Amino acid sequence: MKSMRRFYFFIPLLILSASIYAQDSHDFSEEVIVSSVGERPANEIISSTYNVPHELLDRAINSNLGNIIENVVGVNSSNFGRGVGKPQIRGLGEYRVKVLENDLASGDMADNGPDHPHAFNVLAFSRIEVLKGPAALRYGPFSSSGVINMLSEHKLIDETTPSFGDIIYGNSSVADENSIHFHSLLRSGDWFWGLSGNKRDGKDYKIPGFMETKALHAKHEAEGETEMGVAGAAKNTALKENGVNFHSTWLGNNKKFTYFINKSEAGFGIPGYEHEEEEGKEEVMTLDMNRTRSGVEYTQDLNGIFNKFSFNSAFVDYKHAELEGNKEVSTFTNDSYNVRMELAFGGNNTLPDQKDHPLSFNGIIGFSKENNKTIIAGEEAGYIPSFDQSSESLYIIQNIEHSNLIFEAAARLEKNKLNPKVIKLKEKNKNNGNYSIGGGLKLSDNALIGVSISKNSRAPSISEIYADGVHHDAGIYEKGNSLLKNEDSISKEIYYRYSNDFFNLNAAYFRNDFDSFIYRHITNMKVGKIPVIEYRQQGSKIYGTELEISFDNMTLENFIVSHSFMISKINGKLNDGAYIPRMPPLSFQYTLDAISDNWLYTLRYRYSDKQDSLAYNEMLTDSYNRLDFEVSYRASDNIVVLLLMRNIGDEEIRNHTSWLKDKLPEPGRDYNLSVQYSF
Fold first, then answer.
1. Residue 281: what pLDDT?
2. What CA–CA distance (Å, rounded) separates 376 from 382?
3. pLDDT at position 356
4. Nearest CA to 366 among 309, 407, 420?
5. Residue 146: in which H helix or E strand, if any?
6. In whole angstroms, what is the distance from residue 218 CA to residue 230 CA?
7. How many CB atoms sit inside 10 A of residue 369's CB?
8. For residue 274, which of 8, 473, 414, 114 has the smallest C-alpha distance?
9. Which residues pair with 317 in a beta bridge?
């Protein structure tokens, strides 16, 4: 109730702001183009979309992916220390949220364990696009959740792109972390050459109290363990990262060709895992990862009903080793390739009786193939077996716009093969069909209301079917279920969008009804001191609301001011009445921006309610208030200095979405100073 009272307190402030803004005149005509759905304007898409531009990525030099996009409404971060931040969209994560690089899979092992990282540096990309709802169907069975598409510089190059570059250095006080990122793009006629790189090195990060919660400590005391644990710093959270990215792009004669190669390495501690050797010496678990990714992309404009052909490919050589002290106990290697081909079509027709309202239609026909050969060796070879996996998909997306109506339909057919490299285990073949249909009505030039419905089907993963052993670094014993069938659901969304000269409003209500939801059940069993997790399946429902209101610029004295507010509420229950594990609680966020001459100020307040709607054997997660403040100064045309103060109140922050939330809080107060030089 307290959280809702705080929410209602903001409503009069927003109404007052609207009345103030209405007295001024502003230009709110900037159009956001979404590349991940075929270069279409965001206000014409029957899905919720969000862009994170390059400028915001530059300001997040010491952050992971989850930390960066948790400021998007409906998105939460599931962190596993500072090195791993996995996004959760509308209460769903892992296999139900796809993180892509330039429309293709990353080829890493991030989906196979909460401790496994995404194998890229976020600053290597020029834009992040978040798709929620039917638009995600282009990339797989993700209409019930969403897709995060990381777009590199070469994806956004056009005839107007000039040569440029920058160097950014950042220092984070909470982990004594130093980061540097450089980027350059050289243009010579129709040729472009891009080179970028990064290096990041941080120690264990500081926390305001103990690593463990009081509730977990009390549980350990009852089991005969009396130590409270580490205070002041999060043990084994140090990290090192470095990478280099190169591309060569040719643009001309209605064609575009790109060759790219990226190499990244990372090493970081796995917090929450400790093992005491016989001689009394403690060993910690660390993860050492490296990946090489290369490929070609080709697009060509066409004449006729088919107006563009595109071909994308990526080949990945990935490996990570899990080390206990200096001993390599497990290795995961993955050789993969991903290919996507698409034909875009569209045109305009004029109906005889409606010459002033042309009928616009456009769409995409596509084929994609992904193949993975994964080898698991060492102690965790029994956790999940080595396996070969392939997926082939055909899909079509059709958009129609006429007068004040927007219509969209999509279909995707998938053939999935999962072949475990153990004689006694059988190959699993699954055919999946995903379909969506939606419509929107333009109530005026400024308002759009619409609805969409999707039928989703996802094949179970290797872990969900075949896991049977200790996942050491995650600290759990996972037991799969060979009887799992496809995870099928019906997803519905009702949305409303409104914008005028002074504010923009986006609201959505969504509901996902699963008849075969796959989830991790925390049992009462243990293997030694390690809890046993079982994969189970039953019907469930996940539903929630999202609201975002942003106000355009107004002038107050010497300041140009804008502000925004967002709120998200998600609920998830199984058919037997139990709650779904790791559902995020109610959260809301208020952001205030001000510009004065060469100064830019941002104040952000985030409140996350306590989560007491708990799954079996889950522990309550307390609420928190987080206050961040950013100050940016443009010293010249080439130099920008930025100070980010995160978690100013030094709050103990634990995200209910994280598997480590009872063992590890988020970082405490952090002063992050960065300097950017552009040329």
1. 54
2. 9
3. 61
4. 309
5. strand 146-151
6. 15
7. 15
8. 473
9. 292, 335
Q: Which domains, from first to last, does the chain contain?
A: 2-678 (2.40.170.20)
Residue 460 sits at the vertex; the CA angle it makes with 457 and 462, to the nearest 5 degrees, is 150
The low-confidence residues of the chain, meaning pLDDT below 50, are 1-30, 276-280
Tokens of 590: 């208020």
160: CB partners within 8 A, 6+ apart: none
Residue 459 DSSP label: P
Beta-ladder partners of 427: none
Q: How do residues 102-127 score in pLDDT, each as one tens digit?
A: 999 999 988 887 778 888 888 889 99
| Number of continuous H segments (helices) and E segments (strands) in the chain | 6, 35
From CA 170, how far away is CA 61, in angstroms rounded? 6
Residue 367 to residue 139: CA distance in whole angstroms: 10
Sign of the Cα torsion 107, 109, 114, 118 reads negative
Closest CA to 312 of 152, 442, 440: 152
End-to-end distance of the chain based on CA atoms, in angstroms?
52
What's the CA gap between 520 and 514, in Å, rounded?
15
Q: Alpha-carbon distance 6 to 339, whole Å? A: 49
The pLDDT value recorded for residue 31 is: 56
In terms of Cβ atoms closer than 10 Å to its own Cβ (0-12, 13-18, 19+), residue 374 is buried
Pairing of β 530-556 and β 476-479: parallel
Query: Amino acid identity, residue 24?
Result: D
Query: What pLDDT, on a 0 to 100 scale, did the predictor assign at position 26?
Result: 35
For residues 14 and 565, is the Cβ–Cβ distance under 8 A? yes
467 vs 582: CA distance, rounded Å: 20
